[in-house]
Amino acid sequence: MTAMMTAxxxxxxxxxxxxxxxxxxxxxxETRRRVQQSEERIRIAQDPERQAEQxxxxxxxxxxxxxxxxxxxxxxxKQSREAEQKLEKDRQGKxxxxxxxDQKKKYDDMIENPGRAAARPGGGLLGGFDRMMDGWAxxxxxxxxxxxxxxxxxxxxxxxxxxxxxxxIEKLRQDGFQGMNWQEEMQKFQDGLKEIGEKIKEHLxxxxxxxxxxxxxxxxxxxxxxxxxxxxxxxxxxxxxxxDALKIEDSKDQAAVKAAVVKVFEAEQALREADRESRGKIExxxxxxxxxxxxxxxxxxxxxxxxxxxxxxxxxxxxxxxDVVSARQELELIRQGVLR
Length: 340
Hints:
This protein is mainly α. It has 16 helices and no strands. 78% of the residues lie in helices and 0% in strands.
């Protein structure tokens, strides 16, 4: 990539699926695995009975519950889930009351298609791409001092690229990423980045072009690893973009919300790391044929417990964030995938 393409890829954070190291076959397997995991989580989340059974099964493994206790625990989880669903339905109803008709249609689509709109740890590609794109035009307006007219043109360029990339990702996902030529797709994506960079510069003044070039230089160092793949932005950087989109005027309120968003992203990152570590440990267990069934069960329970703690911390951070934002801000955070 040229320096400009590299910086633009950094601003967008590119697509995780295109940024992974390793050969094309391993990337394809990893992508299929992630998509399958995401879709499985969605299916479980939408099936209260199955979710209750899985939770009760986990307690049985952790605490050694009897069959009777498992049955009672399952019923408790079902009742709890029903209460949560009622609470969520009430909350959605209140949110719809403050929306315009157009916003209601978009919100209802988000609710009906969680796999497409949501951005969960290690989850859907489209939700992740949307998070990367959100606020990019706003960032350029702030950094370059764009006029309203130039901003609208830049925003259109960004949105066109977003739409085309989303359509391509969705088609690949529907095809199960079968027979995908990773090098070809990566080249198309890089060409798209280069194209939008050139289009943006067409609407900049000489002074803004100079600022843009400096922005490129500033964003490039330290963002790319030895293999040239873009690294993840820090929780602070991600939170800054999210809070900018909320347009909070009061500086104290802005600082409080940003701190809460940072905690959500930190917990999300810890959860992802726990998942990666768990996969490594499971691979080691699978290779160790000397372990007894009891030892394997004990190890699996340890892995599940560690993951459960990280998941609780993530949900707790999301709850704390909901407590410091308004209903409309919560709506924006849901749209960006920060909250659910």
